[in-house]
Amino acid sequence: MDTDRPIGVFDSGVGGLTVVRALLSQLPHENIVYFGDTARVPYGPKSPNVVREYAAQDTDVLLGHEVKLIVVACNTVSAVALDVVQQRSRVPVVGMIAPGAGAAVGASRSKRIGVIGTAGTIKSQAYVNAIHLLDPAVHVFGHACPLFVPLVEEGWIDHPATKIITKEYLFPLLLEKVDTIVLGCTHYPLLMETMRAFLQNNVALIDSGKAAAAAVESELRSRNLINASPEKPRLQFFVSDVPDKFAEIGERFLGRTLGRVSRVPI
Fold first, then answer.
1. Fewer CB in 10 Å around end: N or C, the chain?
2. CA 183 to chain CA mean position, Å
């Protein structure tokens, strides 16, 4: 397999761009193809069967671009449909759950870990199961935070309402005396500073996207697929609905201009 083939990343919408951002930091020479299923976002509230159907279609979009590895940036898909992607893919697959769980177990000293995410991710117990595979003695406390996604997409990062809602969501986890919280949604890293201001650095925050980027590097190195080219990486962005809003919001998530965004039928 050619090392300059791109890494494929898919998500239900724009949030997975925080994972692309982490990948660009970890692997600055890698070409990347991103697909956001903006016509059917969000995945979180949908049934597992529907999410599994969508995951198969999203995988096919990326395979059509001859990717060398697929990153399932959507925590909901990682939680309930990672096996669908793995069975359908002819290249390695990295999800969010296992890397995030590993980073959390490594960071926690009290063995009391909180997990925040969409209703679908929390209900699936995927992070709980992954953490317990690594250390059955860890106490895990899940909490759904559905309002975080629209707040981030609205750009209300420092809004007073966001600070109030952050307190409402995180305070129950403080009562459980957690020392580590997993950000189990790709939107949540944009609220990390707001969370830290409330937590006062007493709790470690685990960005599953950064953990996944490290896992991608490890996977590529083990297969001798790291792109050593010094050329500027090619970044391609595709969505399933009109790209205008995606391009506008996406710059906030990626931390740079996206350039051209193309629509593909699904």
1. N
2. 9
pTM higher than the cut 0.90:
yes
Q: What is the pLDDT of residues 175-206, one digit of tens each?
A: 999 999 999 999 999 999 999 999 988 899 99
Per-residue model confidence as pLDDT tens digits over 28-59: 999 999 999 999 999 988 999 999 999 999 99
Q: HSE on the CB side for 74, CA within 13 Å?
A: 30
Q: Dump pLDDT digits (tens) for 110-127.
A: 999 999 998 889 999 999
Task: Give the chain's length.
Answer: 266
**What are the structural domains of the chain?**
7-95+210-263 (3.40.50.1860), 97-208 (3.40.50.1860)
Q: Which two tokens stand for residue 205?
A: 């925050």
> CA end-to-end span of the chain, whole Å?
27
Q: Which residues contact 118 (CB under 8 A, 6 or more apart)?
A: 42, 43, 44, 45, 75, 76, 144, 145, 146, 149, 184, 185
* CA 120/CA 123 separation, integer angstroms: 5
Hey, which residues are catalytic here? 74, 185
Give every strand in the sheet of 204-207, ordered side by side: 139-144, 112-117, 180-184, 204-207
